[in-house]
Amino acid sequence: MRKKLFSILALLLIVSGAWAKTVYFTNSQGWTEVKVYYWGGNGPECSAFPGNPMAWVGHNNYDQLVYSATIPNDVTGIIFSGKDADENLNKTKDITENIDDGNRWYLGDYNSNESKWEFGYTTDLNISTYYVYGDVNNWTENSIYKLQPNTETAGEYLLHGVALEANTYIKVHSSETTKKWYPDGSNYKINTAGIYSIYFRPNGNNAWGDTYYFTAVKNDVINVNVTMAEEGYGTYYNSKYDAKLPAGVTAKIVTAADNNGKLTYRTIATGDDNSKSSANTVPAGTAVLLQGTSGNLTLSMPSLNKPSTNYLHGSDVITTTSGGNTFYKLSYQENYTESDKIIGWYWGAANGGIFTSDANKAWLALPTSGARAFFDLSDSDEKTGISATRIETNDNWYSIDGRRLTGKPSQRGVYINNGKKLIIK
Q1: CATH assignment of 130-219?
Q2: Looking at the whole model, is its pTM more than 0.70?
Q3: 3-class secondary-structure state, position 14
Q4: What is the pLDDT of residues 139-163, one digit of tens each?
Q5: What is the SS3 assignment for 120?
Q6: Which residues neighbour 147 within 8 Å (Cβ) at sequence distance 6 or greater?
Q7: Residue (of 75, 59, 182) closest to 132 by Cα position
Q8: Which residue has the higher pLDDT, 92 or 28?
Q9: C-alpha angle with apex 164: 162 to 166, nearest 5 degrees?
């Protein structure tokens, strides 16, 4: 029993990161089924040799695949291994020194006497980042999109849902100091306007014999995943195309804000409403507050008109906020705990100043300066404009529908005090 409890404790520490570290391996020989085997220490035991699978994380400056794995912090030895094109298992010599967090090992010469590979290590990861430059006619870079590693195909990058115009050209550019361009010496032409999925593999060998490729596949309709917070709220924005909501999700815009802290919401689409296409679809260029469960939005070419008044704004790329004088993001309060966290519109920077927003996310922009620091979401209603409350340093109390009270209430009920819901019994 005591041994079992210790094993459980060790596992929890690994998961929490207290006893864990990350190691990296450069797969310069194009192995498949890349794994790491480790031994020693007090953490959870490794699977039998060849060990645990490693995750592909990107390419280095030489277009070689880099893998990572999390291992117990106090292991005393590791071995990297993988299969070659003939399905033979290859492995490094035993690595028993410099097993530090963040180190990256690479292969040296093959030692035929021991049937093992020599190795070296470095503290420099050199992980490349690849971007698609949209419309490079005359070398103007109008749109830049970051490619994501394809977790299902090692060595491949992809990007779904890119709206491209006809007779434009796209190209891939690396983040390295060498500033590599793909294709080399030419551009990739888009002949037909539409929504595309882009697939890219840098030059580099692997066990399948695949090297470089770059292609764009047209998809008139494509799905993108939107993840909600546990309270069932999220935001979304896309300037290029309409977004059909999944069942159980509602999209709202903010049409007004008053000095009493009230936001007026209007529902513009509901995933459960199939009476007509506009009833369950968010128009392109409309920033929305989503309410419901996580799911896929179905994107299509724009055909709907966006609302004329909306205090929610967004961007297709990472950008600084605009569209008003006081800016808010959907988040939890600072220094929250799991027992008292409240999701809502909070200042994204000091005093509601400009902050950086993620791509395809919405922010709230109010036209007035010095507006409230916090707007509650939990009881918002687009019909009545139930008030949102402010986190205040003084002892202000509000009813659940947003009415400010003269002091601490004496009747039983649910109230808001300093941005927190409290129950008076």
Answers
A1: 2.60.40.3620
A2: no
A3: helix
A4: 445 567 788 888 778 888 888 777 7
A5: strand
A6: 130, 131, 132, 157, 158, 159, 172, 198, 200
A7: 182
A8: 92
A9: 160
